[in-house]
Amino acid sequence: MAESREPASRFYQSQGLQLHYADWGNPTAPPLVLIHGSRDHCRSWDSVARALQPHFHVLAPDLRGHGDSEWARGSSYSLADHLYDVAGLLQAEAIDVATVVGHSLGGMIGLAFAGTYPHKVSRLVVLDGAFLPSPPAIPIDQQIAAWVAQLDGISNANARSFRTLDEAAERMSAHNRRLTPEQALHLARHGVRKNQDGSFSWKFDKYQQVRAPYRLSAEDYIALWSRIACPTLLLFGDESFLSGPDRTGLLRHFSQAEAKTIAGAGHWLHHDRLDDVVAALRSFLEIGGRIE
Q1: Per mean pLDDT, which range of 67-71, 110-114, 115-119, 147-151 is the poorest?
Q2: Secondary structure of the chain in the HEC alphabet?
């Protein structure tokens, strides 16, 4: 099938918010949803989307508070809110069952979605997003007080701005030294909006970084993971800041999962080792005969 080089921008409503997603075309093919991570955007997936688009109807949403989606009113960015938004995207596209690929926060959302609605996910791939949170180290009253202080701090802080796109790209490169200049500029171009004074600011809402005192526990995650009914692939970067010796032990919480480590990759596997990630995706998705 003909490959779409640029996606169409589409929108849908969720909890009163207008949310954006990139539609890469090929609507008669099996649907595949790419979910980005925190402080990222849907166009972070472009290279992966182009590689898979000839075989799938690829949809890449901007999570609420990210990219070209609206910001939540009242700083509501819980995992459950994101899960609701993904469910709304599938409903808007009349999709009953989809393959889901998520990175970091997007992987956590994919895991929770597949555990909540096992019949809606045919295959699941998580890029450096499978981990169990540690129990809170402080009492609940201190957690709430810290949350309030963090919200106040963000409210009083000045937004970061850049004079040029190149400055924003340099910031991206400083965050991930493995990025090529072309990758950094691409991510910056789709990750900033132009201000009235001609400067640029990140599109993501700073409030989405707040750690609310009502997060899921490790037991909650395990309960959801145990309900996942589809084949699952957990990809890890061997140089990720999330790396740890117990990661492969996570497999015991799944009914049918496998893990693979990408050498020379940090947390952003699909930027650091694109060819290896695409090869792993193609191999895993070929299990069901979906890659020709």
Answers
A1: 147-151
A2: CCCCCCCEEEEEEECCEEEEEEECCCCCCCEEEEECCCCCCHHHHHHHHHHHCCCCEEEEECCCCCCCCCCCCCCCCCHHHHHHHHHHHHHHCCCCCEEEEEECHHHHHHHHHHHHCHHHEEEEEEECCCCCCCCCCCCHHHHHHHHHHHHHHHHHCCCCCECCHHHHHHHHHHHCCCCCHHHHHHHHHHHEEECCCCCEEECCCHHHHCCCCCCCCHHHHHHHHCCCCCCEEEEEECCCCCCCCCHHHHHHHCCCEEEEEECCCCCCHHHHCHHHHHHHHHHHHHHHCCCC
